[in-house]
Amino acid sequence: MKNKGILFIVSAPSGAGKTTLCQKISSMVPNLTHSVSYTTRPPRSGEVNDRDYTFIDEDEFRHMIEEDKFAEWAKVHGHLYGTSRKRLEEMMEAGIDVILDIDTQGAMQIKEKYSEGIYIFILPPSMKVLVERLEKRMCNSKDEITKRLKRAIDEIKDYKNYDYVIVNDIFEKAIREIEAIIISERARTYKIDPLWIEENFLR
Ligand code: 5GP
Q1: How far is the CA of 127 from the centre of ligand 1 (A)?
Q2: pLDDT in tens, 133-169
Q3: Which residues on neighbouring strands pair with residue 121, listed in sequence order?
Q4: Which residue has the least CA distance to atom 14 on ligand 1?
Q5: What pTM was computed for the model?
Q6: Which domains are delineated in the chain?
C-alpha cells in the first residue's frame, strides 16, 4: 500500500515547549519526519546546519522567495523562516508523514495551499508558566520578554484554526496525546487504498 504522507502542522506560542515535543515525537514515531526549515536566524549553540535548520543569509532567502521555492514563509521574532516546497512535497510523495513546526502565519499559508493537513496547537499549562519559561530563556532582556508575550497572546487567539489543542502541562502526557492523533489519522478510511482492500479481502 503506497499512500501520500500526512502533513501534521504544529504551532504554539514561544515558550510552550513545542520544539522539544516535535523532536521527541519525530524520533519515536516510525515513518514520521520533521521537515528542516530554512532560516536567516544565526545558529544557536549545539544546532547543526541541515539538521535543526538550513541556515542561510537574507539575500539567499529573498532569492528563494522570488523563485517561489517556499511552501510558506514568515518573519518570526525578526528573522525569516520558510518551508521548502521541494523538501515537503518529496517526503509526502514518498509516503512519509511530515511534521511542520511552524508559526501561526506559516500554518495559515499551508492551509490555503494544501487542502489536506492536520493542525495541532500546543498551549503552555498557564500564562504564569509561559512567563516563567520566557524569563528563564531570555534572562536579561525585559523588552524581548514583553515582545514575545504580546506575540504569544496574538498566536493563542489563532487556536480556533487548528484541529487539535494540546496542553503541555505534563510532557509525557502531551507526547501520548500527539502520538494518539498521529495513529488515529493514519487509520482514517481515506488512507486505505481501495485496491488493496479489493485484492486482499474481496477476491
Ligand atoms: P526558533 O528560532 O526558536 O527555532 O523558532 C522560532 C519560531 O519560528 C517557532 O515558532 C517556530 O515554530 C517558527 N518556525 C520554524 N521554522 C519555521 C518555518 O519554516 N516557517 C514558519 N512560518 N515558522 C517557522
Answers
A1: 21
A2: 888 877 668 888 898 899 999 999 999 999 999 999 9
A3: 11, 165
A4: 102
A5: 0.94
A6: 7-202 (3.40.50.300)
